[in-house]
Design goal:
11% strand, 8-stranded mixed beta sheet, 2-enoyl-CoA Hydratase, Chain A, domain 1, N-(1-d-carboxylethyl)-l-norvaline Dehydrogenase, domain 2, binds (2S,3S)-3-hydroxy-2-methylbutanoyl-COA, 48% helix, Rossmann fold
C-alpha cells in the first residue's frame, strides 16, 4: 500500500490521510495512494462514509508542478476524482491550509466539503499560465455560480472559508478538522442526505444560460489587466463551455485547453518564475543552522515617498514602526500621506474600514535619530547622497542597540562604504525597496563584504514577512536591477541619435510586454534629475539636455519626450520633439537612419542580458533566476517571458552573442561585445539555466 496515503476507520468512517510534505502536491504516488485507499474503503463493508484529509500544514496544494513536461504517470487525476465522485458512500473533503488547483478539484469531486475557518480555497493555475485541468472549470461554476468561478479561475486568487460557505463551496466550517469532518459524515448518514455530484447539478448555471452577459461581463472585468497573457482567456473559454455544453463535453474542452497551455512557452516561463521566486530566498554561503535575529520593532529613517511606503509595508504585516524625521513638519506630511493611502484603499473596499486607524496606530512618528534605540531593524531611506548616508549611519551606530540590523534603502551607493562609517559593519546591509514601496514586491537585499550571515537571513526573512520577494545581491553600482537598466537606457539614448523617435522605441518595449518604455519612464521620473546630475559631472546628452533647456522636464511640466494634456498621464507624441531632435542632430552633423523595430527590441533587451552575464561573472547575483526575479518583481518584466535570462535561453545565446557583436561594430560601442560568460555559453551551445542544477520546472 502507499507510503504517502494511509487509511484508518473511526466509527464506520474511513479517514484517508495524505501525508506528502511540504504541500501534499498530487504526485503520482499521492494519486495512486488516494485511489487505492478510496477503492478499498468503498469495498469495505465496515465503512459507511469516507473523509479525505491531509497531514502537515495544508490540504493538497495542487498538482505536482515538477511533473509537468515529464511523461505522465498513472493514475490520471481525473480517474482519482471519478473514484471519489462515483463512490456509493458519501465522500467528504476536510480542508485546512490551502486547497489549491488540483487539490480543490479533488475536493470538488467529493460529494461534500468542510473546512476550518483559516482555510483558503482556490484555482490559481492561471498564475502558472495554465487552466484547471481536472474538472475545476466545470465543477466550480456548478458549485458557486459562473460569476465567482470566473473571478477565482481567471483571476487566480483564493477565497476564505467564510466566503466559501456563503457561496456553497463548502457545506460547513468546522472547529476541529478531523473530528468536525467525521461528525459531518455522521450527520450526512443520519439524515440520508443525497450524494451531491457537482457534475449533475446545473442549478447555479441556469441564470447564465438564460442571460450570458452574467458570464461575459465577469470575464471582461477579469481580463482587463491580462495584456499579453494567453491563460486568462483560455480559462474563460473553458468556463464558458460549462455553461454551453453538457458536463462530459465541457470536460473535454477543458482538457484540450489544458494540453495546449501546458506545452506553451508562456506556461513554461510562468512555472519557471514560480520556482525562481522560491530559489531566490535560499541564500548561498550561510552556514547551516544560522538563524535570523528576532525583529519585533522596526525604525525607519525618512518619511518621504520611500520611507512612508516602507513603513506601510511593515504596518500592513502588523509590525510596529518608529518613523523618524528631522522635523515635525516633514513627519506630519509623511504620516498624512500614509493615512490617505490607507483610507483610499479602504474606500475602494481593498481593506476593512477600521484597518487605516489600526495601521496608523502601529506607527510612532518621532524627531531625532536617538529614537532608533529600541529597534531590532533600522532602515534608512534618506536623500541619495553618500555624505547624507554617512552622517545618518554614524549617528545610528551611536544610538542603535547591540545586535540591531542596520539597513540602507540606497538604490546605487556602496554598502561597504556606508558600513565602514560604523563600528559594526557586520550588522550593515542594503534593503533596496522599489517605488511605491507599499506596492512593489521586490526587495534587493545587498550583502556587504562584512555582512554577517545571520544579519543577512534577518533581512531575507523579514522581507518575506512583509510580503516582499527578497533577492540577495552583491555590492556594485546599481546592484542588479538598476545596473541592467542603465545598459538599456544607454542604448535607448543612442537610438535617438541614430534616428529612432521616443514613441517608436517605447512602442516596441511595451509591445514586448513591459509596462512602460524608457522615454515615458523618463518623463514620469522627471528629466531634470538626470540633467542636473549630468551637469554636476560635466557630461552631455545633447538631445535630453536640449529638452530640459526647453523646459521639458516630463510629466511635471506637461511636456518632455511627450506632451501631456492637463491632468492626464497619457503620453502623446509631440512633433516639437522630432523637430528638436532633428535640430540637435543637424548641429552635431549626424544623419538619421531608418531603424527597424526588430533592431530596437534587440538593442533594448540584449545589452541587459549581456550585463546580466557580467553580474553573474562577478557573483553579484548567485544564479540567473535571481536576476529574473529582480526584473519580474521590480521592473514589470512580463511574467510570460520568465525574465531576461530565461528569455535569453528561449531566444538562444548564440544568436544574442552574434547580434551583440554586430551592434558593437555597427555602433562602435565595445561595451556591447558579448561578456566572456555569454560568449562561452554561446560557443558551447549552452544556456544560462545550465549554470545552476536542473531547475524544478521541467522544460
Ligand atoms: N508542486 C510542487 N512543488 C510545490 C507545489 C506544487 N504544486 N507547491 C509548492 N511547492 C513547493 C515549493 O516549491 C517549495 O519547495 C515548497 O513546496 C514550499 O512552498 C491539474 C494543473 C501552497 C501557498 O499553483 O502557491 O494543480 O523551495 O515556499 O509560502 O488543475 O507553495 O521548499 O524546495 O511556496 O507556505 C496549482 C502553488 C498547481 C499552488 C504554500 N497549485 N503553491 O506557500 O511555501 S497546477 C498552485 C503555492 C494544478 C490542476 C493544475 C504555495 C503554497 P522548496 P512555498 P508557502
Amino acid at each position: 500500500m502507499s507510503e504517502v496515503v494511509t487509511r484508518a476507520t473511526q466509527d464506520q468512517v474511513a479517514i484517508v490521510t495524505v501525508d506528502s510534505p511540504p504541500v501534499n502536491a498530487l504526485s503520482a504516488a499521492v494519486r495512486r495512494g488516494i485511489l487505492e485507499n478510496v477503492n478499498a474503503a468503498v469495498a469495505d463493508p465496515a465503512v459507511q462514509a469516507i473523509v479525505l484529509v491531509c497531514a502537515g500544514r495544508t490540504f493538497i496544494a495542487g498538482a505536482d508542478i515538477t511533473e509537468f513536461g515529464k511523461p505522465p504517470q498513472p493514475p490520471a487525476l481525473n480517474d482519482v476524482i471519478a473514484a471519489l465522485e462515483n463512490s456509493p458512500k458519501p465522500t467528504i473533503a476536510a480542508i485546512h491550509g490551502t486547497a489549491l488547483g488540483g487539490g480543490l478539484e479533488v475536493a470538488l469531486g467529493c460529494h461534500f466539503r468542510v473546512a476550518v475557518k483559516e482555510a483558503k480555497l482556490g484555482l490559481p493555475e492561471v498564475k502558472l499560465g495554465l487552466l484547471p485541468g481536472a474538472g475545476g472549470t466545470q465543477r466550480l461554476p456548478r458549485a458557486v455560480g459562473p460569476e465567482l468561478a470566473v473571478q477565482m479561475i481567471v483571476g487566480g486568487s483564493p477565497i476564505g472559508a467564510a466566503e466559501a460557505l456563503k457561496h456553497g463551496l463548502v457545506e460547513e466550517v468546522v472547529e476541529n478538522l478531523v473530528a468536525g469532518a467525521v461528525a459531518f459524515a455522521k450527520k450526512v448518514l443520519a439524515e440520508k442526505r443525497p450524494l451531491r455530484r457537482l457534475r449533475d447539478d446545473d442549478s447555479k448555471l441556469a441564470a447564465a444560460k438564460a442571460d450570458r452577459s452574467i458570464f461575459t461581463n465577469a470575464v471582461a472585468a477579469m481580463t482587463k489587466k491580462a495584456r499579453g497573457l494567453e491563460a486568462p482567456f483560455a480559462c474563460a473559454d473553458a468556463i464558458g463551455a460549462a455553461i454551453d455544453l453538457p458536463f462530459e463535453e465541457g470536460l473535454k474542452k477543458e482538457r484540450e485547453g489544458f494540453m495546449k497551455l501546458v506545452v506553451s512557452d508562456q506556461s513554461k516561463a510562468q512555472r519557471y518564475a514560480f520556482f525562481a521566486e522560491r530559489e531566490a530566498a535560499k541564500v548561498d554561503g550561510v552556514p547551516d543552522g544560522t538563524k535570523p535575529r528576532p525583529v519585533s520593532r522596526v525604525a525607519i529613517i525618512g518619511a518621504g515617498t520611500m520611507g512612508g511606503g516602507i513603513a506601510m509595508s511593515f504596518a500592513n504585516a502588523g509590525i510596529p514602526v518608529t518613523l523618524i524625521e528631522t522635523g515635525e513638519e516633514q513627519l506630519k506630511r509623511g504620516l498624512g500621506i500614509m493615512q490617505k493611502n490607507w483610507e483610499a484603499t479602504a474606500a475602494r473596499g481593498g481593506l476593512p474600514p477600521d484597518a487605516p486607524a489600526k495601521r496608523m496606530a502601529l506607527i510612532t512618528g518621532l524627531v531625532g535619530l536617538e529614537n532608533v534605540k529600541d529597534a531590532d531593524l533600522i532602515i534608512e531611506a534618506v536623500f541619495e547622497t553618500m555624505a547624507v548616508k554617512k552622517e545618518v549611519f554614524t549617528a545610528v551606530d551611536a544610538h542603535a542597540k547591540p545586535g540591531a540590523v542596520l539597513a540602507s534603502n540606497t538604490s546605487y551607493l556602496s554598502i561597504d562604504e556606508i558600513a565602514a562609517t560604523t563600528k559594526r559593519p557586520q550588522d550593515v546591509l542594503g534593503m533596496h525597496f522599489f517605488s511605491p514601496a507599499n506596492v512593489m514586491k521586490l526587495c534587493e537585499i545587498v550583502r556587504g563584504a562584512k555582512t554577517a550571515p545571520d544579519a543577512l537571513l534577518t533581512a531575507v526573512s523579514i522581507a518575506k514577512k512583509i510580503a516582499k520577494v527578497p533577492v540577495v545581491v552583491g555590492v556594485c553600482d546599481g546592484f542588479v536591477g538598476n545596473r541592467m537598466l542603465a545598459a538599456r537606457s544607454k542604448q535607448s539614448e543612442k537610438l535617438l541619435f541614430e534616428g529612432a523617435l521616443p514613441q517608436q522605441v517605447d512602442a516596441v518595449v511595451t509591445k514586448f510586454g513591459m509596462p512602460m518604455g524608457p522615454f515615458a519612464m523618463g518623463d514620469l521620473a522627471g528629466l531634470d534629475i538626470g540633467w542636473r546630475s549630468r551637469k554636476d559631472r560635466g557630461i552631455k546628452s545633447e538631445i535630453a539636455d536640449a529638452l530640459c533647456e526647453a523646459g521639458r522636464f516630463g510629466q511635471k511640466t506637461g511636456k518632455g519626450y511627450y506632451k501631456y494634456e492637463q491632468g492626464s498621464r497619457a503620453p502623446m507624441p509631440d512633433p516639437e520633439v522630432e523637430t528638436l531632435i532633428n535640430d540637435t542632430l543637424a548641429k552635431l552633423g549626424l544623419k538619421r537612419r531608418d531603424i527597424t523595430d526588430e533592431e530596437i527590441l534587440e538593442r533594448m533587451v540584449y545589452p541587459m542580458i549581456n550585463e546580466g552575464a557580467r553580474i553573474l561573472e562577478e557573483k553579484i547575483a548567485a544564479r540567473p533566476s535571481d536576476i529574473d526575479v529582480v526584473w519580474l518583481y521590480g521592473y514589470g518584466w512580463p511574467i510570460y517571458r520568465g525574465g531576461p535570462m530565461h528569455y535569453a535561453d528561449s531566444v538562444g545565446l548564440k544568436h544574442i552573442a552574434e547580434r551583440l557583436s554586430a551592434y558593437a561594430k555597427a555602433t562602435n560601442d565595445p561595451s556591447l561585445e558579448p561578456a566572456p560568460l555569454l560568449a562561452r555559453l554561446a560557443a558551447e551551445g549552452k544556456t544560462f539555466a545550465s549554470l545552476t542544477q536542473p531547475s524544478k520546472a521541467a522544460a
